[in-house]
Amino acid sequence: MRAITDDVTTDDRPAALRGVCAGYRRHPVLHDVTAEFPAGRRTAVVGPNGSGKSTLLGVLAGVLPVLSGTVRRPGSAGPALVAQRTSVSDALPLTVRAAVEMGRWASTGPWRRLSKRDREVVADCLERLGVADLADRSLGALSGGQRQRALVAQGLAQRAGLLLLDEPAAGLDVAAQRYITAALDQERSCGTTVVQVTHDFAEAREADHCLVLRDGRLLAAGPPGDVLTRDVLSTVWGGVPAF
Ligand SMILES: Nc1ncnc2c1ncn2[C@@H]1O[C@H](COP(=O)(O)OP(=O)(O)OP(=O)(O)O)[C@@H](O)[C@H]1O
């Protein structure tokens, strides 16, 4: 897949999509999506399976080209994208430390020798996600939850102004979820714009801003308390139990 260059603007305004249509070969997924991602805040993207959440994240990350519309990203550095752990092969011959060090490539360039500062950033990210003691283990040999924490550590190591995460806490135990929530809160308090896809309404309610997707269209956007109403939940998910 090619990175988008021609239809992207980067400046200091919040990340945004304007009239974006995007998808895969002969399979349009996002239809005329216009949305903003408030700077220095956490945005939750929710919606049923197949509604286009990961596609939206891919467009924002620049790994998926738009068919029409524009993407605006803040700053000149690229965003950090933390994919779902299932998208990483078990056979990848990488230690946890090497995987997190790759996060520094965004600023050093690939295969460059890491500076002392880079190594400090890597050590800090391993520590914050509670995977420092796993640093010399192979990424493919970790449990799903351990691997997910390592991938989030890799995302943090990029020190990007825009951090995108696809279901970072899905299927994790409470301790692993807390590591991730604490790390994301810390990022937000440092001014990072965080965008996370989630199926967890409680997690979405903790965000500052929420987007609801249905069938590739933006159905609602705003503060989670205003957006995740009973009406929206029953329209989108066909009536979910009270929570
Ligand atoms: N690589 C791909 N090639 C072709 N179609 C794809 C590809 N990835 C996703 N799709 C299709 O795009 C649509 C939206 O998928 P997407 O993964 O964005 O949804 P999602 O909301 O993230 O779903 P989920 O909650 O199940 O993760 C689906 O119909 C899916 O089958």
Automatic annotation (TrEMBL):
Residue stretches making up the ABC transporter domain: 8-240
The keyword Transport belongs to this UniProt entry's keyword annotation: yes
InterPro entries: AAA+_ATPase (IPR003593), ABC_transporter-like_ATP-bd (IPR003439), ABC_transporter-like_CS (IPR017871), AztA-like (IPR047748), P-loop_NTPase (IPR027417)
Keyword set, alphabetical order: ATP-binding, Nucleotide-binding, Translocase, Transport
An MF annotation (GO) of this entry: ATP hydrolysis activity
UniProt-recorded name of the protein: Zinc/manganese transport system ATP-binding protein
